[in-house]
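Notes from hallway chat w/ T.B., transcribed later so I don't forget. T.B. wanted the structure written out for a chain they're using in a teaching module, and asked if we could keep both sequence and C-alpha cells in one place. Agreed to drop them here.
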Amino acid sequence: MIMASYNHQHEFHLFNKVDEQKLYNSARNIEVAAWLLAQRKDNNNQALILSDSVAGEQRNISYQRIIGKMIATQDNLAKVVSRQRGRVIKAVVLQVASMAFLPI
C-alpha cells in the first residue's frame, strides 16, 4: 500500500514524479489499518493482534508512535509535492521575466 503511493519505485531522481493524492490516501489508509489492528476481535472477544499491550500490563504505545510517524511522513510528503508544482511555475515565470533584460 505504501509502495503503491510511490509508484513502486525504490529510488528517486530529480525528474521523478509522485502523486500527492496517492500519498494523502496512503496516510489515511495507515490510519484505518491502525484502527483495525486495535479494534478487531475474535469470537472469544480477544484481540486478533496485540497492537498496544496485554490487559494488566503498563500500556505500551510504541506501535502507535511508529504508525503516527508513518502517517506524518506521508502527509508531509504530500504537502511538499503539492507545493512543488507551484514552485516550478513560479520559477519558470521568474526565468522568463529575467530574460527580458540583457546580461551585463
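Follow-up for T.B.: The two ends are 53 Å apart (CA to CA). Might be a good example for the class.
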